[in-house]
Amino acid sequence: MGETAEFVARAASSQFNSGKIEIKRVPYVKDEEHILDIIEEASTIPNCIIAYTLVIESMKQLLIDKCHEKNLEAIDVLGPMIKGLGKVTNTEPKMQPGLLHQLDDQYFRKVEAIEFAVKYDDGKDPRGMIYADIVFIGISRTSKTPLCMYLAHKRIKAANVPLVPEVSPPEELFKLPPKKVVGLTISPELLYGIRLERLKTLGLAASADYANMQRILDELEYAERIMKKVGCPIIDVTNRAVEETASKVLELYFKGDRHGE
Q1: Ordered DSSP codes for 56-87
Q2: Most exposed of 22, 56, 127, 152 (fewest Cβ within 10 Å)?
Q3: 175-227 confidence digits (pLDDT tens)
Q4: Is residue 52 within 8 Å of residue 1, measured between CB atoms?
Q5: In angstroms, how far is CA 257 from the centroid of its own chain?
Q6: Could you tell me which CATH number the domain at 101-255 has?
Q7: What CA–CA distance (Å, rounded) separates 232 from 51?
Q8: CATH 3.40.50 residue window(s) in the chain
Q9: How far apart are CA 7 and CA 27, in angstroms?
Q10: What is the Cα–Cα distance from 147 to 218, expressed in whole angstroms?
């Protein structure tokens, strides 16, 4: 009756070349009256078969009984597979309709969130901030991008904006509700080591301003001023794994407790 049954029916009908096989899809069958209407219509069509994916036992049994009365062929598309899976896993199926569509929705929301994180990474387009669930701000190497990607896999749209003393933050940042923004900070000593390793990876001299301690202190001080101006909570990512920081962010996001720590 639904999308799954239609797909199986088309796959099966492709094996027959003796004539045209017409398939009619009937989605969202939610009550017994609808089942009775379907069976009544099917009984007027010659050589009609009903393929169904009903999982609610009472509705399925009604369909089977009424098809038997009308001498209609009824094919249970999901039943044998569900029974087999239950047997090998030794678990009971949920038998709830619509679960596949729920999974599909979750998957597409995750893909959308990942695409969002890539599109609005590193302040590429400040206009995207108004569409974000969360906006991270912080200086370079405070895990802004990894956090955005991690949260995207949890279907949360996150953008990030780097804070650099020489570049004024986009005006859009100060128009956001403070509860939507999370500031990220880190200990200068740890950041110094991270940036030093980054320079080595890039084949650059360790004396570059990027890994200069005074420069790092200036950046952190500047970032703190911006975060206070925005009025957002600040999370210290020092020695925190991305998962741990994300857990704190989610706590703020879902509980609405955005007074920092």
Answers
A1: SHHHHHHHHHHHHHTT-EEEESSHHHHHHHHH
A2: 22
A3: 999 999 999 999 999 999 999 998 988 888 776 789 899 999 999 999 999 99
A4: yes
A5: 23
A6: 3.40.50
A7: 56
A8: 101-255
A9: 13
A10: 24
